[in-house]
Amino acid sequence: MLIPTVLSTLKKLKKLNIILVVLSTNPYPPKEADISIKGRVKHFQLGDLFDEVHATREYHGSKGEFMLRILQERGIPKNKALMVGDSYKWDIKSALNVGIAGVLIETKYEKHPATKRIKRKINKMSELLNYI
To answer: Of 18, 37, 45, 121, which is the most exposed, with the fewest CB atoms less than 10 Å away?
Structure first.
């Protein structure tokens, strides 16, 4: 199931020529993990909205490493990037650790004590447009 307002928000971001990348932590071996995440993107018919789709490894620094590599390959400075995720530990903290800003999507599934200190958080995807 997609988070409410995700499709309309992604379409608006794409119209603004914002580069959109999926990074999803996955415990499977790399090849299987990539097939799994790309299958989900295809299932939800989101392939045309994303510029890149990657499964990251199951250790906390993996997403940060992917973010830095993608930014370097595309010639984008860190201050022009934004990690949007629903996990403080796997998404936001990974971004902050490498100097990239993050926005936490608060859900009923992940409650973390650190979320009280996070200034950038949203309850629905459409609120992300306030940070662009």
So the answer is: 45
- Name the helix (H) or strand (E) containing 7: helix 6-15
Do residues 67 and 100 touch, judged by C-beta distance below 8 A? Answer: yes
Residue holding tokens 């990348």?
21
Rounded CA separation 102/85 (Å): 8
Which one-letter amino acid corresponds to residue 61?
G
pLDDT by 10s per residue, the chain, length 132: 787 899 999 999 999 999 999 999 989 998 999 999 999 999 999 999 999 999 999 887 899 999 999 999 999 999 999 999 988 888 999 999 999 999 998 876 665 555 556 778 888 899 999 988
Domains of the chain: 6-131 (3.40.50.1000)
